Amino acid sequence: MRKSSRAPVGDKLTADMQHEIAFEMATSSIRYGAGSTKEVGADFSEMGAKNVLVFTDPILSKLPPVRNAIESLEANKVPYQLFDRVRAEPTDESMQEAIRFATSNPHDAILAVGGGSTIDTAKAANLYSCWPADFLDYVNAPVGKGKPVPGPVKPLIAIPTTAGTGSETTGVSIFDYKPLRAKTGIAHRRLRPLLGIVDPDNTRTLPPMVAAASGLDVLCHAIESWTAMPYGDRPRPEKPVLRPAYQGSNPISDLWSLEALKLTARYIRRAFADAGDEEARGAMMLAASYAGIGFGNAGVHLPHGMSYPVAGLVFPAQWDPKLGIHVT
Ligand SMILES: NC(=O)c1ccc[n+]([C@@H]2O[C@H](COP(=O)([O-])OP(=O)(O)OC[C@H]3O[C@@H](n4cnc5c(N)ncnc54)[C@H](O)[C@@H]3O)[C@@H](O)[C@H]2O)c1
């Protein structure tokens, strides 16, 4: 049994550093339920949205998750514009195309319907259209300058269609940076969606290989966040606002990570084998969001860190929908 008390070990920091004394949990609001995608029009209507930018990828744009979301916007008379050119495994170039779209189309809210690629692209488009800057300004150091997001961004509702990255709960946006053949990202609490609508109906059309790959992502998020360095072993920031989103494991993130691990162990095979198994698909959707809450606050570690240079070897990763795998 792992210890849940987080007494600082006192030997990892230099003499002028204090140990962290606190952790802070943050996540998006999450609504879970089969059929809940059809509520999104009412959500935007309620917030008085006059022009919603809808982000998705070319495959999903023809499938029920996007169709249901758009029908809901129309039924609630919410004006929208569609960007359906999200790239699976986004790059700096594909992100910048989405940013240009958001910058040149006035809007007051954003909807992302898709996997992590779509939700992450929508987060970047939201950030740079609200706070224009050189692309590398907000990108994590050392690839970028790691500047903090200067202020609030527009409300973003995320509807995941994979189970999944947990991107509907996190302030993280990941992409391939082509000039350096490196995978990197932008991470800031302000990027987090206002609401994640987690609807198990949306993974009915998920190809089995995507169900397997995205399910293993959940497994890695859960294991890595549960085994991350305890927050008390990390240095204390000068002021609370400088506390990073990835703070180390802590008693609350542990709950989410461990539950995600249990659900994944129980349901991943069934979700892979049978897209008609509603119980398994629902459980994997929940597991993805649970793991997102866990790793979005505790962080991940070596396996994700090591995957970035490996991803660089087969760069740029490109999704082949026919093969159901990433190809070079
Ligand atoms: N932001 C985060 O916190 C976070 C965490 C982990 C991973 N990521 C990033 O997310 C990206 C991967 O996202 P992903 O694994 O969700 O997949 P994805 O969004 O890249 O989608 C993979 C493929 O599956 C298709 N697809 C998705 N949902 C479908 C559905 N319901 N029916 C039919 N086809 C469907 C897509 O069209 C695409 O071709 C990577 O860039 C990864 O680095 C982000």
Structure, described:
- Mean pLDDT is 91; it is low at 1-10.
- The protein is an alpha/beta fold and 328 residues long.
- Strand 4 (109-114), helix 4 and strand 5 form a beta-alpha-beta unit.
- 48% of the residues are buried.
- The strands form 3 sheets. It has a 6-stranded parallel β-sheet with strand order 1-8-5-4-2-3, with helices on both faces. A two-stranded antiparallel sheet has the order 6-7.
- Helix 3 packs across helix 4 (116-130), helix 5 (208-226) runs antiparallel to helix 6 (251-273) and helix 5 packs parallel to helix 7.
- Helix content is 37%, strand content 14%.
- The chain is built from 8 helices and 10 strands.
- The protein has helices at residues 40-46, 64-75, 92-104, 116-130, 208-226, 251-273, 278-298, 302-313; strands at residues 29-32, 52-55, 80-83, 109-114, 156-160, 172-177, 182-187, 195-198, 318-320, 325-327.
- The structure holds nicotinamide-adenine-dinucleotide.
- Residues 57, 59-60, 63, 65, 88-90, 114-118, 120, 161-162, 164-167, 170, 172-174, 202-203, 205-207, 210, 214, 217, 319, 321 line the site of nicotinamide-adenine-dinucleotide (NAD).
- Nicotinamide-adenine-dinucleotide binds at residues 57, 59-60, 63, 65, 88-90, 114-118, 120, 161-162, 164-167, 170, 172-174, 202-203, 205-207, 210, 214, 217, 319, 321.
